[in-house]
Structure formats: structure tokens, C-alpha cells
Amino acid sequence: xxxxxxxxxxxxxxxxxxxxxxxxxxxxxxxxxxxxxxxxxxxxxxxxxxxxxxxxxxxxxxxxxxxxxxxxxxxxxxxxxxxxxxxxxxxxxxxxxxxxxxxxxxxxxxxxxxxxxxxxxxxxxxxxxxxxxxxxxxxxxxxxxx
Length: 146
Fold this sequence. Notes:
With 146 residues, the chain is mainly α. It has one domain (17-125). It has helices at 3-6, 21-39, 46-50, 54-67, 69-78, 88-91, 99-122. Helix 2 crosses helix 4 (54-67) and helix 2 packs across helix 7 (99-122). Residues 141-146 have low confidence and may be disordered.
């Protein structure tokens, strides 16, 4: 996947103690979000994507995933089955987006979330069941970006 070449796992931790399953989940979400945005071939956000080189799109997806951390923690602590995605996640990064662009990007983010939930159901790591647990995936060769 192109996202794994552009989005570095090391963007999701500063110290070894932050190599936790929650941060790995966010990394995987950022990759999935990037792939869906990159693959979107409709005209809905074509102009928006044309302004961003792949590297900047990768940075945006990592930023967006990290901003979702608070929502994800709330989701896990409240045990509700809805996650809140706030408009300011986009507005703080993409100052000149139209409402339509933000709506489409948010919808694609929702599809990335749904994809993560599907992959998580089959994954033995159970990141959302033990979000603070150590995640050895950060230490795999070629994915840390150090």
C-alpha cells in the first residue's frame, strides 16, 4: 500500500512507552484513510486532492488520525458504539475547504473507520480491547521510520 511508504509509524509515538496499541490503531487508521482518499476517483474532491502532493495528503491523514485520539478514548471509556468526528478536525488543517469538500472527506473518514472495525474484528492484537498495551508492531523492520 502506498500509504505505508508515506505515513511513518514513528509519527505516532515519541518515546518507547508510547508504542501502544491505541497509537498503532491510529497509524493503521491513517493509512486506511489515506488509501481511500488517494483512490477516490470521483470529482467530489478532485480539486482538493490536486492541491496536495501525496506527502502532504499523508501528513493530513496522520494529523486527522491523531486528532481523533480524544474521540477514540471517549468512545472506549463510554462504551458507546458511536465515534464523534468534529468539523474542526478538518477546519484546523484545511482552512480553505468548502463545506462540500469537508462533508466528502468526513464521509471517506467514516468509510476508513468502518474498514478498521472490520479488520479489527479479525485481528488477534485486539488494540481497542487493550489500548494501553505495548504494541510490538512498531518495532517491525521498515515500518517505524526511524
